Structures are given as C-alpha cells and as structure tokens.
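Duplicate of #3305? Posting structure anyway:
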C-alpha cells in the first residue's frame, strides 16, 4: 500500500513539474503565408502574462514565379514586424524592419493580448529569379519562445559582449577626457594666478611711478619757487 502511494506521489510530482515548465517556457513553431503584393499585414494574437519575455526568430521564403510550390530565398525580400498591446489602445512596442531572416524581442509590460503582425515587402521582380517575373507568395516560418530568458543564443551573448566591451572603451575614453579637463583647469588656474600676479606688479609699479613723478614735480615746484624768490630779491 505504501509503495502504491509513493508511486502515485512521484507521478503527481512529475506532472506538476511538467506543467510548471510548460508555464515557464512555451515554444511555438508555426508557418503561414503572406501576399507580398498586399499591404495588409498577417497578424495573430498572443495573451501574455506581465513581465514575460518573448523572443521570435523568423525565416521567409518566396515562391518561384514559374514553380508556385518551390520556395527559395529572396535577398530583396524584407519583413516588417510590429507588436501592439491591444489592451492599451494598440500601444506599439515593436516596429522593426529586417531582411528575409531575423529576430525580434520584447517584454510584456502588463498582462493582456498582444497583436504580432508581419508584412512582406521588396519582393518585386527586379533582379530576382531571372526572367523579370513577379515572385509568388511568401512562406514565413516563425519560432516563438515565450517566457524564456535562456532563449538568448550564443550570437546574442557575443553581441552583448561586444556592447560591453564598447561600453568599457567609452568609459576609458571618458576617464581620459576627464583627466584632460582636470589638466586644462589646472593650467587655466595657474595662468590666472600668474596673470593676477603680473597685473598686481604692474599696478604697484604704476603707483610707484606716480609717486616718484609726484615727488619730482613737488621738488621742482619748490625749487622753482625758491629760484624766483631769490631772483626777485637780487
């Protein structure tokens, strides 16, 4: 009896763990078709909990003009991805345009429905599949990872590492600029002190010259007065 209860308990734990993992991480792989000649986007809705991270990878292939069932890469094809928060008056949180392959990432600010739309453009005849014929419909394959912080792949980690290195380089440059600014302020302060000292010496010398001139003038006046008095008496 105890063995049966233990097995049932283990099965219950296993089911709970599986359900928990499914709630934490959901990966959806779907594909759908887009008419490149139409400006109407292809949209679907996803209800997301608050603070849920979503990472999407997409690949778009276009049907050949003469073989509608054969899909190949078109370098001229571009995909526009938009994500709107339906619950917040269609507030747009993502609006990006990329090539026929790419990714997008966003985090749900609040719980509610999010509208994810894709639009194909640039799929004209110019320079693709010789013959100058218009390409067919676009097949877009989408891998959507919901609630997975580990969905950041090694390429993203490499980009993050490059950004971190650039930030460190910028910090180093800022330190050098700050050091140069401190040096310039010190030189300006030294030049200001030297200018003030020079101006003070010039002022003192000018005052001394004025005093000497004043004494000289007074002496000359007294000497001339004595000379005139002496001449009058004689």
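Output from current build:
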């Amino acid at each position: 009896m105890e063995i049966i209860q233990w097995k049932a308990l283990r099965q219950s734990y296993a089911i709970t763990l599986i359900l928990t993992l499914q709630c934490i991480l959901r990966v959806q792989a779907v594909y759908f078709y887009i008419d490149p000649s139409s400006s109407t986007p292809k949209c679907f809705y996803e209800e997301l909990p608050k603070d849920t991270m979503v990472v999407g990878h997409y690949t778009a292939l276009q049907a050949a003009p003469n073989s509608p069932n054969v899909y190949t890469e078109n370098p001229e094809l571009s995909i526009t991805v938009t994500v709107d928060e339906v619950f917040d008056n269609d507030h747009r949180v993502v609006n990006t345009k990329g090539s026929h392959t790419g990714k997008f990432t966003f985090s749900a600010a609040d719980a509610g429905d999010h509208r994810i739309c894709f639009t194909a453009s640039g799929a004209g005849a110019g320079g693709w599949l010789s013959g100058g014929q218009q390409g067919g419909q676009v097949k877009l394959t989408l891998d959507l990872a919901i609630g997975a912080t580990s969905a950041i792949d090694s390429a993203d980690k490499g980009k993050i590492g490059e950004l971190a290195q650039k930030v460190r380089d910028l910090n180093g440059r800022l330190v050098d600029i700050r050091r140069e600014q401190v040096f310039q302020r010190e030189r300006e302060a030294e030049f200001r002190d030297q200018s003030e000292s020079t101006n003070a010496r010039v002022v003192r010398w000018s005052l001394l010259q004025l005093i000497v001139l004043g004494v000289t003038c007074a002496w000359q006046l007294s000497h001339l007065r004595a000379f005139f008095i002496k001449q009058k008496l004689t």
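Confirmed duplicate; merging threads. The first helix runs from residue 2 to 24. The beta strands are 26-34, 42-48, 53-63, 71-72, 78-85, 91-98, 101-107, 112-121, 138-146.
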